[in-house]
Amino acid sequence: MAAASAATQVAHAASSAQQATRSMRTGVLIHPSTAHSGRFLVLPHPRTLVPTYYLSASSSTSSSISTDQLYELSTLQDSKHDRSWMISRLNQVISSGQLDILSRIDARFLVVSLLYSVLGDGKYRSREDMFEQIALELHVRRSEELCEAIPELKARLATGKDSAEGQQNEWTDVVVFEKLEVTKRALEDVADVQDLPNGEQAYRLSLPKTFALLDSKHSTLSQQSTFISAPNTLGRTFERSWPHDSDPSPYVSLPSPDKEAQDCQDAQQLRSQIAAEIIATYLPDKLAAEYFAHLGIKVDQ
């Protein structure tokens, strides 16, 4: 219980510091048109479990049905130089501001990570029990990490000067995440489902379902047309990683009207490798290694 109060105390200190500096912060936020409002949640990142901001936002489909989506908040910071940003629509320059980006993320990555990282016993659980247990376990882990990282806090807890009584003892946003419709749909896509006598359902992570999902993403991402459509990101990564002295650009650029697109086995293997590495950035390290083995891709140690 002593460790459980650590996260709360540090969170209070961080909150006070944020309130003191929030009015002084300037920056630019880039976001999709579907992510203009919603609620921010602090959830474990799928690969590292580090607390990360996610926006839960609702959007209307073509059939006028409202569906919730999840967006990850990332920040582009330059530790050496201040950056300024020209906002053309406002005809305004934001000086010394950081760039924040909201990008859509598949909620199934978060669900897979939580189930794989915390609930590894293969037992079936109701959705509510599953996420409550995850919230409790991750809160304890985070509290213990904070105690080890902050000697003063560890010393205070060891002497009993701070009590955990009445303090928050679970990662509350994980519980909130469980109640989102996008989470319910994601769980059904990556978990085995068992009907219970009381009419409810129980779940456990299914690796076959998870790998089938990842295979679908990998197949799309590794296509030549995908790389051609993203020359500044995938295309550049491909060209930097090309293992031969020959020009790699024909394999990631549109052909001239009188020529067909060029491709070869080495190019296909490299695209597959790059696609797998991108997917792995949203998987726990151990699961990523299992998925690389599933694809037959060797990982450099």
Automatic annotation (TrEMBL):
Its main location: nucleus. Residues 168-289 form the Ribonuclease H2 subunit B wHTH domain. The keyword Nucleus applies. It comes from the Eukaryota. Residues 240-260 are annotated as: Disordered. GO terms for cellular component: nucleoplasm; ribonuclease H2 complex. One of its GO terms (biological process) is RNA catabolic process. InterPro entries: RNase_H2_suB, RNase_H2_suB_wHTH, Rnh202_N. It is found in: Nucleus. It holds the Pfam family Ydr279_N. Keywords: Nucleus. Residues 32-106 form the Rnh202 triple barrel domain. Non catalytic subunit of RNase H2, an endonuclease that specifically degrades the RNA of RNA:DNA hybrids. Participates in DNA replication, possibly by mediating the removal of lagging-strand Okazaki fragment RNA primers during DNA replication. Mediates the excision of single ribonucleotides from DNA:RNA duplexes. This is Ribonuclease H2 subunit B.
